[in-house]
Design a protein that fits this description.
The chain is α+β, with helices and mostly antiparallel strands. 33% of the residues lie in helices and 24% in strands. The chain has eleven helices and 13 strands. The chain has a four-stranded mixed sheet. A hairpin with a 2-residue loop joins strand 8 and strand 9. It is flat.
């Protein structure tokens, strides 16, 4: 029997976290190439440490002259990202950091498997398993702990950048332990927030006084009470932050990026990968489908798994789990999903409009649970397939 009363915890990290700095740069490189050519191939990795950013991986454009030209823009892209995040520390500054670009052309063997001559359908860019998840405990159909952990950090970043909280630095982490009663989130049993601050004289109490009003306005009414434990900068000072305090790497926050541990993860990172890589595009499709299953009222909670083989267009398997909340048979949901959406890599990209420079904005505060943008960003958060799924089951 599923537990109905429990506490579940998820964490988030800010855009200034070292790993998120790297995700941001990798996705900015991707956006730059997609802006030039919608079918650009990009698999970009970034590493950051004290005063240094290293970028590597593979890229591809049909026009080789344009490819060489874009290679020359990589350093500026990295500096623009770090400047926007807000790093102007002595040992990590957007102007003085050393940027090394080791990007190279995409492997012919990978390219041939995905789009090579003789392929009737475009194949997947890699093998793997991808999961999507949705649950009706929040309006965004996301698990509450990760959703609000993200929202807290996004609110603090807005206050920092607007000048309302100039004492705060870019690097931060949040962690929420949410209390569930009868299967629904009702309160926060503990909150952990560690945030960089620019004034070394500030104590943990001083930092709490700065951040607490923003946290209270972000969380639902009544979720914080006298029983809630607060741990704000529990180790004391947090002045040295970002890649100067700890090295960063693209793709190292995959649970933060998805469901905060409330659902399975296939293991593949998202950032820096163009949508021919099913690690990214099929994970977005799985979230889209799971969300529409819940939005359609077919289940209160849904996990959807997809699997692919490199160079093969169609998914090898589709598996739905409604965790005992389904209003219809899970096999019927699987059949409806396959009937309502073309789950080949090309079909996913066309249905969700993924061949656009919309990825830099996903690099922090979660890839899921965000409102769809007018230009097509977060298109996988739409619920426009709910009606079709209801009719198909």
């Amino acid at each position: 029997m599923t537990r109905r009363n429990y506490v579940f915890t998820s964490e988030s990290v800010s855009e200034g976290h070292p790993d998120k700095v790297c995700d941001r740069i990798s996705d900015a490189v991707l956006d730059a190439f997609l802006h030039e050519e919608p079918n650009a191939r990009v698999a970009c990795e970034t590493f950051a440490t004290t005063s240094r950013v290293i970028i590597g991986g593979e890229v591809g454009l049909t026009d080789q002259d344009r490819l060489r030209e874009y290679m020359g823009r990589i350093e500026d892209i990295a500096r623009d990202c770090v400047r926007d995040i807000g790093y102007e520390q002595d040992k990590f500054h957007w102007q003085t950091m050393q940027v090394s670009n080791y990007l190279h052309e995409q492997s012919d063997h990978i390219a041939r498997g995905v789009t090579g001559e003789g392929n009737r359908d475009e194949g997947a860019g890699d093998q793997g398993i991808m999961f999507g998840y949705a649950v009706n405990e929040t309006p965004e159909l996301m698990p509450a702990p990760i959703l609000y952990a993200h929202k807290i950090l996004r609110r603090l970043a807005g206050a920092r950048k607007s000048g309302h909280a100039p004492e705060l630095g870019p690097d931060a982490k949040s962690q929420l332990s949410v209390r569930y009663e009868n299967g629904k989130p009702v309160g926060v049993s503990s909150i952990v927030l560690s945030t960089q601050h620019l004034d070394a004289r500030l104590s943990s109490g001083d930092v709490r006084a700065i951040v607490e009003p923003y946290i209270r306005e972000t969380l639902p009414d009544g979720w914080l009470d006298d029983r809630t434990e607060w741990h704000v900068n529990p180790t004391g000072k947090f002045v040295i932050g970002g890649p100067d305090g700890d090295a960063g790497l693209t793709g190292r926050k995959i649970i933060v990026d998805t469901y905060g541990g409330a659902a399975p993860h296939g293991g593949g990172a998202f950032s820096g990968k163009d949508p021919s890589k099913v690690d990214r595009s099929a994970a977005y499709a799985a979230r889209y489908l799971a969300k529409n299953v819940v939005a359609a009222g077919l289940a209160g909670r849904c996990t959807l798994q997809l699997s692919y083989a490199i160079g093969v267009a169609r998914p090898l398997s589709i598996c739905a789990d409604t965790h005992g909340t389904g209003k219809v048979d899970e096999a019927g949901i699987e059949a409806a999903v396959a009937a309502c959406m073309d789950l080949t890599p090309r079909g996913i990209r066309e249905h969700l409009g993924l061949n656009r420079p919309i990825y830099q904005r996903t690099a922090a505060y979660g890839h899921f649970g965000r409102a769809p943008d007018e230009d097509g960003g977060f298109s996988w958060e739409r619920t426009d397939l709910a009606g079709a799924l209801r009719r198909a089951v």
